[in-house]
Specification:
single chain, 337 residues, alpha+beta, five-stranded antiparallel sheet, 7 strands
Length: 337
C-alpha cells in the first residue's frame, strides 16, 4: 500500500510539472498568435496607403504565413488507433505488454486519472512498471525472496487477502440488500432518541498553560475565531457535523459550565499530546436522519451483525476453546432464550 501511495505521489508531481509546462506553452502560443495578427493588420493598413509600395506588405504577409505554418507543425497530432496488445518492453525473454500498464493505471485514484493527460499518464506508469520489474528482479538475484522476513510477510498478506475476499463474497451482498437496509432503518427510527445535538469548534495548543491563557482571553471578550487563527495549531478545526449531546463523554460534559450555544470549555481538554479549547458553535433539536443520509451507517451495522453471526457459527463448527491471558479457561456466558 505504501508503495502504491508513493507511486501516486510521483504521478501527481509529474502532473504538476506537466501542467506548468503546458501553461507556459499556451502563453507562448498566445503571444505568437497576437504578433501574427498585429502584423497582418499592419499589412492591411499598408495596402490602404497609396504612398507606400506593396513590397513591405508582401514581406510581412510571407513572414506571418511562415509563423502560422510553424505553429501548425507544432500542434499535437491525432493519436493513432492502437490495435491488439503490443509489447511495451522486452527484457531478455520477458515481455511487458500494454494491458499490464493499463492494469496499473486502474489502481490509481479516479480523480488523478481524470486530471492527467492519457498519454502522459501512460508514459509515467510505463516508467514505473519497468522500474518495479527491474528492482524486483535485482532483489530476487540478491536472494531476498528467500529470506524468512519476506516469506512471513507474504504469508500474512495471503491470509489477509483470503479473509477480505471471503467477507466481500459472503457478507457484502447482505449489507447492500435494499430490503435488509430498510428493515434496519425502521429499527433505527424506533430506537432513535430525541434531544439536543451540537456543532463545535476547537483551538488546539501545545501546552496546558497556553490553553488556559486562551480560556482566560475568551473570558475577557477576545474573539474565538481570531484566537483560533493566530494561536491554534494545525489540528484546530471548525466541525460541520452535529453530535448528539447524549453521546458526549461525561468527562467532556463536565468541562462546560452548561452545554449551550456559544459555551466554551472552562478547562482545557487533553486529546493525545495536545490541549484543546472547545466552543459550541450551534445547537439544535436532534431529528432522525433520512434513509439516504444514514444508509452507509446502516450498512456497517448489518455487516457487524452478520460478522457476529458468522463468528458464532464458525466457533461452534471448529470447536474453539478460549483461554485468558494467564492460561485459565474463559467463562462461557449463557444466553437466555
Amino acid at each position: 500500500m505504501k508503495f502504491k501511495l508513493g507511486c501516486a505521489s510521483a504521478v501527481l508531481m509529474f502532473l504538476c510539472c506537466d501542467l506548468a509546462w503546458g501553461g507556459a506553452l499556451k502563453n507562448s502560443f498566445t503571444k505568437g498568435k497576437t504578433e501574427v495578427e498585429a502584423q497582418n493588420k499592419g499589412a492591411e493598413k499598408s495596402e490602404e496607403r497609396p504612398q507606400i509600395s506593396d513590397a513591405p506588405s508582401e514581406k510581412v504577409t510571407q513572414k506571418a504565413d511562415e509563423q502560422v505554418q510553424a505553429r501548425k507543425e507544432e500542434a499535437p497530432k491525432e493519436k493513432k488507433e492502437i490495435k491488439g496488445n503490443p509489447v511495451i518492453f522486452r527484457i531478455g525473454k520477458k515481455e511487458i505488454r500494454r494491458d499490464e500498464i493499463l492494469a496499473e493505471i486502474k489502481t490509481l485514484p479516479v480523480q488523478l486519472v481524470q486530471q492527467m493527460p492519457a498519454d502522459k499518464l501512460f508514459d509515467e506508469m510505463k516508467r514505473q512498471k519497468l522500474m518495479t520489474y527491474l528492482v524486483t528482479e535485482q532483489a530476487k538475484k540478491a536472494g531476498m525472496d528467500r529470506e524468512k522476513g519476506y516469506i512471513d510477510q507474504i504469508e500474512k498478506l495471503k491470509e489477509r487477502v483470503l479473509f477480505e475476499s471471503y467477507l466481500v463474497k459472503e457478507l457484502a451482498p447482505k449489507a447492500s440488500n435494499e430490503t435488509t437496509l430498510q428493515q434496519q432503518y425502521q429499527k433505527y427510527l424506533v430506537e432513535f432518541k430525541s434531544g439536543k445535538e451540537i456543532k463545535i469548534s476547537t483551538i488546539a495548543l501545545s501546552t496546558e498553560k497556553e490553553a488556559k491563557e486562551i480560556i482566560e482571553a475568551l473570558g475577557k471578550g477576545a474573539p474565538f475565531d481570531k484566537l483560533q487563527k493566530e494561536k491554534g495549531l494545525g489540528s484546530s478545526e471548525n466541525s460541520d457535523r452535529y453530535i448528539p449531546v447524549f453521546r458526549m463523554p461525561d468527562d467532556l460534559k463536565k468541562k462546560f459550565k452548561a452545554v449551550a450555544k456559544n459555551e466554551v470549555t472552562k478547562e482545557p481538554v487533553k486529546i493525545a499530546d495536545t490541549y484543546h479549547v472547545i466552543k459550541i458553535t450551534d445547537m439544535r433539536d436532534s431529528k432522525p436522519g433520512t434513509f439516504e443520509e444514514i444508509k452507509p451507517i446502516l450498512s456497517q451495522l448489518i455487516l457487524r451483525d452478520e460478522m457476529d453471526k458468522l463468528m458464532s457459527k464458525l466457533e461452534n463448527q471448529y470447536k474453539v476453546q478460549k483461554f485468558n491471558e494467564d492460561g485459565t479457561p474463559e467463562k462461557v456466558e449463557k444466553t437466555k432464550n
